[in-house]
Design a protein that fits this description.
The chain is α/β, with parallel strands linked by helices. It is 41% helix and 16% strand. Helix 6 runs parallel beside helix 8 and helix 8 packs across helix 11.
Length: 333
């Protein structure tokens, strides 16, 4: 049975990936960073079933904990999903972002390389790096695997470092190391501070009479939004391709934050003019104007295409947010 290790398993992507791997009968192990509050809400439903997750405490900033866990678990595949993942916050903590989002994956790859050389880890172990469309930055759409990378945020720069390091270990050390360049993706488990969840949560609260205003930043930013569950299926296909490679994962569609906002409010029969305001406080120091992926390669090579449409994604998130709001459940990370 395949032994799969996931960093950041308690995040949105990690939880959907864990579900998928359990369905495929993998033994799933997750690395969780120790905090003062319980942060396993997204995977709680997976912890008490027959095919369950084995959790371990570790940190992408701690090379010793990575080596220890690789030796203990002896995984067949490692999915590096964990990171400091909020683009706006990365401007406030750039060195931490570089250390975790950038060097964190490098620590894993270096540990894998050294353990393989000493026959302490199987030479066939695979590595997946969660790369990001933020690496494209100012490059105009459509963006594919050959588009120049021009990141303008600490997060995008950190992701680009690990994208290239993944390729470096693949070519320099003959490792199965692959990148998935994922464009924006969300769902009911999206963190509260991300703009899509922020809009939907606020709209539901306004609808229920629990909130008066929604304050946002740049409404003209254009993004390619998909469903996180679909994208984890793409990751699985990338990791189980016959050879390591790099793939863009996207819907090929593009919408502005304004359009996202309008559709959410329309579905809830609310008027934007009555409730929405803009503030410079929510703008990034450097704005990325437009990200729209071209997923032709993954469709042609691996047969992947998204199943959930833009409108269906919003419906899914509204339904979940309404249920959570009525039960006062909030996803914070």
């Amino acid at each position: 049975m395949t032994r799969s290790l996931i960093t950041g398993i308690n995040g949105q992507d990690g939880s959907y990936l864990a579900e998928l791997l359990l369905k495929k009968k993998h033994n799933v192990f997750g690395i969780i960073r120790r905090g003062s509050t319980i942060n396993t809400r997204r995977i709680d439903h997976l912890l008490y079933q027959k095919e369950k997750i084995t959790r371990h405490y570790g940190d992408l900033g701690d090379a010793n904990s990575i080596v220890r866990l690789l030796l203990k678990i002896k995984p067949d595949e490692v999915y590096n999903i964990g990171s400091m993942s909020h683009v706006r916050v990365s401007f406030d903590i750039p060195t931490y972002t570089g250390d975790i989002t950038g060097l964190g994956g490098c620590r894993i790859l270096e540990a894998m390389k050294n353990l393989r050389e000493h026959k302490l880890l199987d030479s066939t172990v695979k590595y997946y790096q969660a790369s990001s469309s933020e690496m494209y930055g100012l490059s105009p759409p459509l963006q594919n695997e050959n588009t120049p990378f021009l990141p303008v945020s600490p997060y995008g720069c950190s992701k680009l470092f690990m994208y290239h390091m993944t390729r470096t270990y693949r070519f320099g050390h003959n490792m199965f190391a692959c990148n998935g360049i994922l464009f924006n993706h969300g769902g009911p488990r999206r963190g509260e501070t991300f703009v899509t969840k922020k809009i939907i949560r606020a709209a539901c609260r306004i609808k229920l009479g629990k909130q008066d205003k929604l304050i946002l930043g740049n409404l003209s930013a254009m993004r390619d939004w998909g469903f996180a569950g679909d994208y984890m299926d793409a990751i699985y296909k990338i990791m189980h391709h016959t050879e390591p490679d790099d793939f863009v994962v996207a819907t090929n569609e593009i919408y502005s934050v304004q359009q996202f906002l309008e559709l959410v409010f329309k579905k809830l029969n609310l008027s934007i003019d009555d409730y929405v305001e803009q503030s410079d406080a929510f703008y990034r120091p450097n704005e990325v104007p437009a990200l729209q992926g071209d997923s032709t390669k993954i469709h042609d090579v691996l047969g992947w295409s998204p199943k959930v449409s833009f409108s269906q994604l919003i419906n899914m998130m509204i339904k979940s947010a309404m249920e959570e709001e009525k039960n006062d459940k909030i996803t914070t990370a």
